[in-house]
Amino acid sequence: MIAHRKRFSAGLAMMIGFVVVLVLIFLPIYSGQNGLNYLDSLYNSISKGSAYYIPAVGEEIRAAEAGPVSVTLTMADETQARQAAMLFDHAGRDVRTVVNASQLKVEGDLGKILQSCLADADLMYHNQGDKLREIYPYDERRVLYNWHQSLIAMEKDLKQQKKFQQAKLVSLIDQKAVECAYNYYTIEPKKISDAFGVVLFSLLFYVIYTLWYGFAVMYLFEGWGLRLEH
Questions:
Q1: Are 124 and 144 in contact (CB under 8 A)?
Q2: Strand-by-strand arrangement of the 103-109 sheet
Q3: 106 near 69, Cβ under 8 Å?
Q4: Would you give the distance in Å from CA 174 to the centre of its chain?
Q5: In angstroms, how far is CA 198 from the centroid of its own chain?
Q6: Is the pLDDT of residue 205 over 80?
Q7: Within 13 Å, how many C-alpha atoms sit on residue 17's CB side?
Q8: Is the CB of residue 148 less than 8 Å from the CB of residue 182?
Q9: What CA–CA distance (Å, rounded) separates 103 from 224?
Q10: How high is the pLDDT of residue 228?
Q11: C-beta of residue 170 within 8 angstroms of C-beta of residue 151
Q12: What is the CA 214 to chain-centroid distance, rounded?
């Protein structure tokens, strides 16, 4: 039984409006996407536009003078070990690799290895995976994934050798360049200033839409005669 018709009617009208807007959000009317996917793509593009750390990381490598390393990397299997060996071989003649089943032994200048890794990550960050396929005979995503796995294994081996400064550099490249480039691959970067109006509207809408639902529920319950008492 309805105790307060005006409150109940207001709550019902707000709830109907809320559902109508919710349906509109999930319709593909925003550049062929629904509202959630559109905003997700937009915010990914904006975050990519502010996550380009590769040049700064390259400067850190040059300043650090990483020096020579000799590490043994344990990969998932022999196939991955051989694919990863191609990455290190591309770093230059000063870098030598030996594959033994799933283990990959790497010797050479760490600075050159990391700069080569940065160059590959830079191509992926700029969505130029076709150029990576010209260098390595397999999928470009796999290239970055193999770099990621190789750097994890290299960091572990360097720490065991107590070469903590070099291990820190390797971890930095993995987090700031390889992972970033892999996660943002195919996304077009944007500056927040290019979509400031949409961003502001989406934030205000989120707050208002949440309050809208809360008041609709409150008015419905009050219309039924339910109240919170202290």
A1: yes
A2: 68-74, 103-109, 96-100
A3: yes
A4: 12
A5: 22
A6: yes
A7: 16
A8: yes
A9: 70
A10: 56
A11: yes
A12: 33
